[in-house]
Design brief:
By secondary structure, the protein is an alpha+beta fold. It is built from seven helices and 20 strands. The strands form five sheets. A seven-stranded antiparallel beta sheet has the order 2-1-17-16-6-8-7. This is Domain of unknown function at the cortex 1 domain-containing protein.
């Protein structure tokens, strides 16, 4: 759950909670002032802009500690792309059949972890910040509540470098695993949306569903488990995580998503229709997810959602009625779709 639920649970400016007009005005203002860019890489020193919602062009990472692919989807994405020949799709296939009610964005990882004597207790995933957060009053109460919701959550919100992390295998919504000497049948159907990734990683049958999303396919006590709640509950115990060895020859497919954080519109959406500007997410404070070892010595991969000031882009002539922008720092032409209304019924 991590900081995504903390944003929706109480770190929201209280003065706007019951004033929808103020909230909507702030959201529209932030959308006008900033453009979303997503970067990823093996560590903070090697981040690159990725093509959001392009299933066939995932970011490949081949580092000392992680070898695999990262795919990021954002519902209604209207931000900057890495390749000027890849305008943002109207919508990712990932969000088909109303899945946007469960996920407003998704970070998918498929790959292998490399390290000495790694266990499920060593690999942490979550939010990291580079500066102290201006926490509101009574934030400690919400931290206590979130730890009750996610017993593996490790919070360090009051330090100069705050973080909110959990063991990767205990926190992701979907997880599939297969050994290096096992793979699917030769003629098994491979979801087209992940064709490149799956052909190279040779997943076992059942690791992905028919729509291309990561499926729950994880053995617990030598018994195949297809219930993510059982797997997450199993890994709540430290002893269970420490017994699970993460070998470099084994492949993991994980999908982490949130129904609350709308990075495209820079706001938090709650089940009761409360929509608030996303706190701590602005031009100076990106929303960053990192996968590290528990001791922080090694980083496996990083995904960072950044807000680029609109002043650093300029509008170009439209193509097929789709507005475009040019990112001044790179010289590439980026296409940006008109964002859907913040309060549309589909969301």
């Amino acid at each position: 759950m991590m900081l995504g639920n903390l944003f929706g649970a109480g770190l929201i400016p209280s003065q706007n909670m019951y004033d929808p007009m103020t909230s909507q005005r702030l959201i529209l203002q932030r959308n006008a002032n900033f453009v979303l860019r997503v970067r990823a890489g093996p560590d903070m020193a090697n981040l690159q802009t990725i093509d959001v919602n392009y299933e066939r062009t995932p970011l490949k990472i081949d580092s000392r500690y992680f070898k695999g692919y990262i795919t990021v989807r954002v519902f209604g994405f209207n931000g900057l792309m890495a390749d000027p020949c890849h305008p943002p799709p109207a919508q990712a296939e990932y969000f088909a059949n109303g899945f946007s009610r469960k996920a407003l964005y998704s970070i998918q990882m498929v790959g292998q972890f490399h390290g000495h004597n790694l266990t499920a207790d060593d690999i942490m995933f979550g939010n990291y910040f580079d500066q102290r957060l201006p926490l509101p009053p009574f934030s400690g109460l919400f931290e206590w509540f979130m730890k009750r919701m996610d017993r593996t959550l490790a919070l360090d919100m009051k330090s100069d470098n705050p973080s909110a992390t959990s063991p990767l295998l205990a926190t992701v919504q979907k997880l599939s695993y297969w050994k290096g000497d096992l793979h699917g049948s030769e003629h098994s159907s491979v979801p087209e949306v992940n064709n490149k990734v799956l052909r190279e990683m040779l997943p076992i049958d059942g690791a992905f569903d028919e729509e291309g999303r990561v499926a729950e396919y994880f053995p617990i006590k030598d018994t195949l488990n297809k219930d993510s709640k059982k797997r997450r509950h199993y890994f709540e115990k430290t002893s269970h995580r420490q017994k699970w060895k993460v070998k470099s020859s084994d492949t993991y497919a994980c999908d982490f998503f949130s129904p609350f954080i709308d990075v495209n519109h820079q706001c938090v959406r709650m089940p009761n229709a409360v929509v608030e500007p996303m706190p701590f997410f602005d031009g100076d404070m990106p929303l960053r997810y990192e996968c590290r070892t528990r001791d922080g010595r090694h980083t496996f991969f990083v995904v960072q959602f950044e807000l680029i000031p609109a002043s650093r882009t300029r509008p170009l002539s439209s193509i097929q009625n789709r507005p475009r922008r040019q990112y001044r720092d790179s010289g590439y032409e980026r296409e940006i779709l008109d964002p859907p209304p913040p309060y549309s019924a589909e969301q």
